[in-house]
Specification:
This protein is α+β, with helices and mostly antiparallel strands. It is built from four helices and nine strands. The N terminus is likely disordered.
């Protein structure tokens, strides 16, 4: 199977809401992917338009960390979507500041958005029409060349499924109201 985002070949090991990927080759990486989905009672066009705005992504992230929400510092949106960037600042364990730039690498209207953070993670949002609305899926891919560091990163920086479910719930509430 070809690697994610046109990268190296990989193997998949599927588990409870997560996909662990072991890459082969000279630049071997380990990857943890957390993927969650939610049904939204709105047309796919409305859901896509909402999620495509980085401000709404960070509003949803604030639902995970209301005491210390991440902050958007600068947003530079391109009309075609790809190449859009946004800079952000967040707290790490309420003690340290961490920041970076996220670049929109894929943008297929009403189907898929892929954002890549300068700190490493890939955020993928997919949109599927459903009989009564839209299925919104979100996947975050954490990769590293150091074995098991991706799993440590997922455990230390997130509450895994719980955080991503909270973000999806925030999207759902904002879109449906």
């Amino acid at each position: 199977m070809e690697g994610a985002y046109g990268r190296e070949p990989q193997e998949e090991a599927v588990g409870r809401g997560r996909v662990g990927v072991r890459r082969k080759g000279p630049r071997a990486m380990t990857t943890t992917t957390i993927k969650r989905s939610i049904h939204v009672d709105a047309p796919v066009e409305e859901v896509f338009k909402h999620v495509a705005d980085p401000r709404h992504i960070y509003d949803a992230m604030a639902a995970v960390s209301p005491k210390y929400p991440p902050v958007l510092a600068e947003v530079n949106m391109k009309p075609e979507g790809v190449g859009s960037t946004y800079q952000w600042i967040g707290h790490l364990w309420s003690l340290l500041y961490m920041g970076g730039t996220t670049t929109r690498e894929e943008y297929t209207p009403n189907e898929r958005i892929v954002d890549h953070s300068s700190t490493g993670p890939y955020w993928t949002f997919t949109f599927e029409p459903a009989a009564t609305g839209t299925t919104l899926s979100m996947a975050v891919e954490l990769s590293t060349k150091v074995p098991f560091l991706d799993k440590l990163e997922a455990a230390v920086f997130t509450n895994g499924d719980q955080d991503f479910d909270a973000m999806l719930d925030a999207f759902k509430k904002a879109i449906e109201t």
